[in-house]
Amino acid sequence: MALSLLHSPAVMGNRPIKNARCSILLEWRDTSNALTNPTSPATEFSVDGGATFTDCTEEVSPTAGHGYITLTGAETNAALVKVQAKGTGVDTATADVYPADFPILESGTAQAGGTITTIVFASGASAVDDYYNGTVVRTTGGTGGGGTGGLKNQAREVLDYTGSTRTATVRAWEIDGAAYPDATTTYDILVTPEWVQAQFQRTVLGIPAVAPNASG
User: Fold this and answer.
1) How many Cα atoms sit within 13 Å of 5 on the Cβ side?
2) pLDDT at residue 10 is higher than 50
3) How far apart are CA 71 and CA 124, in angstroms?
4) Residue 99 phi/psi, 5° resolution?
5) What pTM, to 2 d.p., does this model score?
6) For residues 65 and 29, what is the distance between their CA atoms, to the nearest angstrom?
7) CB contact at 8 A, 102 and 190
8) DSSP codes joined into one string, 44-89
9) b vs e for 158-171, b when ≥16 Cβ sit within 10 Å of the residue's Cβ?
10) Are 17 and 138 in contact (CB under 8 A)?
């Protein structure tokens, strides 16, 4: 896996997900505050207020003083991630990431099938259409997930769900090698506030409800 804007928090309602890949934008300025490309750019991260910074697994390629970095799932496995963007000829810039730590509703292993914008949940998943709409699915192992500390884990909001086939529609996955999530992929389904609200309307108020798409 490599740098990919498919993990921008903007596609998750501006919510990075704990222990999943996340891409953030960075910029570099010189001492006169003008945007400029650094010589030998370097990005480092620290977690939960720690004083020790470690090189990020990925590295940016700045253009016109801007660039982005994809933090791995291992690097976002914290309540706070501080990123430093350094380089020769520029001031050090920083960015703060606060990964959302949503409860796990279900975990499972995906079935065969799926596409770059879907994942087929385990046979024991709900057979009710739209049941998981508004939840977040985080891969945890197999193709498209796993690795040391969850390095390759990905998170996507469930935009639509077909109960008869257990198929969740999401925004595009980052390709892992030459494949997207398949029958080897393990996952967690995460509860979001939008999903809880929808279930309250559905079960307590008796109003047919579908969790809103938080990211539009």
Assistant:
1) 5
2) yes
3) 32
4) -65, 135
5) 0.89
6) 7
7) yes
8) EEEETT-S--EE-SS----BTTEEEEEE-TTTT-SS-EEEEEEEET
9) bbebeeeebbbbbe
10) yes
Tokens standing for 208? 């047919």
The Cβ of residue 147 has, within 10 Å, a number of other Cβ atoms equal to: 15
CA distance 185 to 139: 7
3-class DSSP state for residue 43? strand
Average pLDDT estimate for 174-203 = 90
List, in order, residues 6 or more apart from 200 with CB less than 8 Å away: none
- Residue whose entry in the numeric block shows the structure tokens 């390709």: 175
Contact indicator for 134, 214 with CB cutoff of 8 Å? yes
Tell me the per-residue pLDDT of 66-79, one tens digit each, with 9 for 90 and over: 889 999 999 999 99
Does residue 110 contact residue 156 with C-beta atoms inside 8 Å? no
Residue type present at position 106: E
Task: Give the Cα separation of 105 and 88 in Å (integer).
Answer: 46
